[in-house]
């Protein structure tokens, strides 16, 4: 089979061809796994973090990709809840131990042995992959393959962020950063909280206009003063400044949810500007998001199907994987990028 592999850490600002196209044997599923023939795979900022060494894989080479859509090609001998031909998806959660306190309480995203698809195990930038049946989900028929792929990560992690924000209908929700995840959060918020107003902080006028076109009540720069403070704000940026600014835009008792796998180390000096009375006083909270659970993915797919939530996508051919990553790194984007691997 054809697969794209990452062989080393590199700087995508300098090197455009980060992945190597390779011929590999098709994998074989073990007793608890499925073999999946992949149709498409979303392209995520987390791949940039893997390539550039901010969240590196434990070994090389590795096949990246964790927003995988395909058809079941073969079943492990102990798999009984799927059939050959089922259309399925694989998200960031590849596996967990299944026996720790976190796994037993439905919080496998916090498991010490959490393994990520496309980082700790080969992922979806390939024609085939294997995955544990426990981490695989059925894809609702309402979605085309390229629509479904970004829902598995940008959508599911956005859904988890929204749950952690604990917003009630009628309250104001803020979004800082407006890429693949945030634009889906806005869409699901409009469905779940029809009486709430959404305010968006985004770095470019294009992103601000995109947010308004999707129903944001207000959109402005990160450092702009919104018309009213928010009950909760979800931050999806890799920088520290939006965190400080967001804290200043929260109501008393408000919650900031940071949905980011990392923050820029060279941006940390902004934290020295934290002012306790304006940023943290009045029982404001900060909550981080760590990974996703299998339930997050399945619940969000059900919500997205019922509410007709679909991402804005830009599709690349399988051969254009390096171009898609380069564009994600170096260009402003609206929505989500997807590799089409097989028809």
Write out key terms for the chains shown.
343 residues, 2 domains, six-stranded parallel sheet, globular, Quinone Oxidoreductase, Chain A, domain 1, seven-stranded mixed sheet, Rossmann fold, alpha/beta
Q: Which helices and strands, and how do they pair?
A:
Layout: E1 2-5, E2 20-23, E3 33-43, H1 45-51, E4 68-75, E5 87-90, E6 93-95, H2 101-104, E7 115-116, E8 128-132, E9 136-138, H3 145-165, E10 173-176, H4 180-192, E11 198-201, H5 205-213, E12 218-220, E13 230-235, H6 241-248, E14 250-258, H7 276-280, E15 285-288, H8 294-307, E16 313-317, H9 321-330, E17 336-340
Parallel strand pairs: 10-11, 10-13, 11-12, 13-14, 14-15, 16-17
Antiparallel strand pairs: 1-2, 3-4, 3-8, 3-17, 4-5, 5-9, 6-7
């Amino acid at each position: 089979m054809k697969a794209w592999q990452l062989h080393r850490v590199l700087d995508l600002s300098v090197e455009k061809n980060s992945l190597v196209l390779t011929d590999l044997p098709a994998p074989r599923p073990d007793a608890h796994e499925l073999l999946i023939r992949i149709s498409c795979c979303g392209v995520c900022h987390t791949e940039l973090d893997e390539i550039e060494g901010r969240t590196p894989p434990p070994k090389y080479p590795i096949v990246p990709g964790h927003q995988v859509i395909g058809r079941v090609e073969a079943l492990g001998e102990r798999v009984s809840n799927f059939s050959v031909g089922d259309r399925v998806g694989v998200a960031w959660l590849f596996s967990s131990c299944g026996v720790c306190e976190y796994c037993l309480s439905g919080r496998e995203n916090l498991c010490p042995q959490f393994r990520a698809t496309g980082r700790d195990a080969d992922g979806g930038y390939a024609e085939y992959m294997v995955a544990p049946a426990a981490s695989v989900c059925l894809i609702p028929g309402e979605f085309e393959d390229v629509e479904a792929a970004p829902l598995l990560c940008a959508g599911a992690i956005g859904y988890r962020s929204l749950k952690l924000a604990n917003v009630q209908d009628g309250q104001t929700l803020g979004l800082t950063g407006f890429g693949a995840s945030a634009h889906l959060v806005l869409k699901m918020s409009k469905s779940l909280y029809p009486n709430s107003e959404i305010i968006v902080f985004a770095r470019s006028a294009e992103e601000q206009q995109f947010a308004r076109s999707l129903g944001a009540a207000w959109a402005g720069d990160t450092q702009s003063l919104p018309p009213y403070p928010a009950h909760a704000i979800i931050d999806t940026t890799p920088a520290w400044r939006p965190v400080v600014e967001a804290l200043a835009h929260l109501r008393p008792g408000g919650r900031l949810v940071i949905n980011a796998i990392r923050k820029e180390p060279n941006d940390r000096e902004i934290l020295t500007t934290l002012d306790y009375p304006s940023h943290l006083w009045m029982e404001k909270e900060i909550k981080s998001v760590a990974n996703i659970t299998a339930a997050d993915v399945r619940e969000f797919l059900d919500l997205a199907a019922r509410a007709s939530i679909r991402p804005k996508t830009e599709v690349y051919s399988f051969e254009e994987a390096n171009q898609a990553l380069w564009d994600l790194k170096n260009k402003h984007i609206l929505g989500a990028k997807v590799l089409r691997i097989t028809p």
